[in-house]
From TrEMBL:
Coiled coil: none
Protein name, entry field: Methyltransferase domain-containing protein
Single Gene Ontology BP annotation: methylation
Keyword presence, rRNA processing: no
Top-level taxon of the source organism: Bacteria
The UniProt record lists the keyword Glycoprotein: no
Keywords of this entry: Methyltransferase, Transferase
GO MF annotations in UniProt: methyltransferase activity
Pfam family, one: Methyltransf_12
Methyltransferase type domain boundaries: 38-137
Length: 238
């Protein structure tokens, strides 16, 4: 299987640390965790690791299909033995994930647009099954309701020693799907390009209301959104 996140993984925390911290703090204000956390598409683990530092010592299940992302995730766990002891990593997609109830917080951040529409209802049901009664499911509000041309834009730039890592993204409609290209450029101290890598993948645009309806159909009670600097979270209660 092609790992669409392989190129992104090495730079992910460098470019997204601020957004991950903002999301985690918005979640901490909304959720009281006493049983466990399920993170679908956990990436490098940056969000759940921030949460874990602030909550009781509950088990965490991180579902992450990308080898590249898991490499960064396992490196994070290797550097934090206490987090390693409580985190189980499942190298699979959300479509294949199933569990009995154990969690009172489930997360799906930056990931739900990757789920093909026919699979989404089943995934929501599985999340619901993994939650204890009263458990909370938090997802990013989708930003793209239909495929749209996206001009190239910079995601961020970060100094690493004498070099600078620059991330950028562009997109195009591709039928019902959205095509994305993420580009990572490393510049030397003089601003000359040292390396350039791209990765491409597709997502399925969905409107926030459609997503809320799907969650309600799966048995969740959809509550008021949580707005934070940089985005909005949909909250669905089991
Ligand atoms: C944009 S990253 C977000 C990572 C992390 N949730 C965060 O907010 O930092 C999307 C993640 O979703 C994962 N992903 C893609 N398709 C998936 C699927 N079908 N099931 C579970 N995870 C998936 C990717 O491997 C990637 O790690």
């Amino acid at each position: 299987m092609v790992d669409a996140y392989a190129a992104a993984a090495q730079y992910y925390d460098l470019l997204h640390a601020e957004q991950s911290a903002a999301r985690a703090h918005a979640m901490l204000a909304a959720a009281e965790v006493r049983h466990g956390i399920l993170d679908l598409g956990a990436g490098t683990g940056s969000v759940f690791a921030t949460l874990a530092a602030e909550i009781p010592d509950v088990p965490i299940v991180a579902v992450e299909p990308s080898v590249g992302m898991r490499t960064a995730l396992y490196a994070r766990l290797a550097a934090d033995p206490a987090l390693r002891a409580r985190t189980t990593v499942l190298p699979e997609t959300a479509e294949r994930y199933a569990s009995a109830e154990f969690a009172d917080l489930a997360l799906c951040l930056g990931t739900s647009p990757a789920f093909p529409p026919p699979y989404r209802p089943d995934i929501w049901e599985r999340v619901r099954t993994a939650l204890v009664p009263g458990g909370l499911f938090l997802l990013d509000e989708p930003q793209l309701t239909e495929p749209v041309a996206q001009e190239p834009r910079e995601l961020g730039r970060v100094a690493v020693g004498t070099h600078t890592v620059v991330g950028s993204v562009r997109g195009e409609p591709a039928g019902q799907r959205q095509w994305w290209e993420y580009r990572y450029t490393v510049l030397d101290a003089e601003g000359e390009v040292l390396s350039e890598e791209e990765t491409e993948f597709y997502t399925w645009p969905v409107s926030p209301d459609e997503l809320r309806t799907e969650l309600a159909d799966a048995g969740f009670v959809v509550k008021d959104d949580i707005a934070y600097e940089g985005g909005t979270l949909i909250q669905a209660l089991r």
